[in-house]
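Before the break, one more example. Copy the sequence into your notebook; we will annotate it together after we see the structure.
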Amino acid sequence: MNYIEGKKINLFNKYFFKKCLNFLSKLNRKDIKNQLKISKIGNASDNCNDLQKSFLSLENRIALFKKNVYSPQYKKKISDLLNNYLIPEWKLIKKDLLKNKIKMKKLFKKKFIIFSPSDFGSHNMKVFKKKLFFFDFEYAGFDNSFKLISDFISHPDHVFKKEDIEYFIKKILIKLHGYQ
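Here is what the structure looks like once it is written out:
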């Protein structure tokens, strides 16, 4: 996206978080969401609107990650990390989630479905004249807000302080879902 004027965001701060939150909030105003539904905008690609899709998405990401470790110097370390920690940990978490399926289903209620840019991150934002611009909506559609949050905070290009992550999660739940 070199032809879009502006600079990449290298470090998020409260100003950028607020701009992101305002953007997501505007996308999800009731009148806008209704217009998108009328326009037959579908689900975001790789959406996680139910528990099974969420499990499948995570397992696909683990498999893709495992398959795409090209660097020989890191292959063993990453393979060990996956096989000795991440995959066994995921199996325990999945087992626990399935035991609490009724509680988990609450996270997939209709009220948590938002219009999501899907590929939402600093790689699709630029700052120009103190304004933040968002682009690249080819994967956009309806998705679970928790997926948007987790994709955003776990994006490899982002480095956040713990308090910034907590701020973002708290504010997005207030802005999009009215939680206090």
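The helical segments are 14-27, 30-38, 51-67, 72-99, 101-105, 145-154, 162-177. The beta strands are 113-116, 125-128, 131-134, 141-144. Try to locate both features in your own notes.
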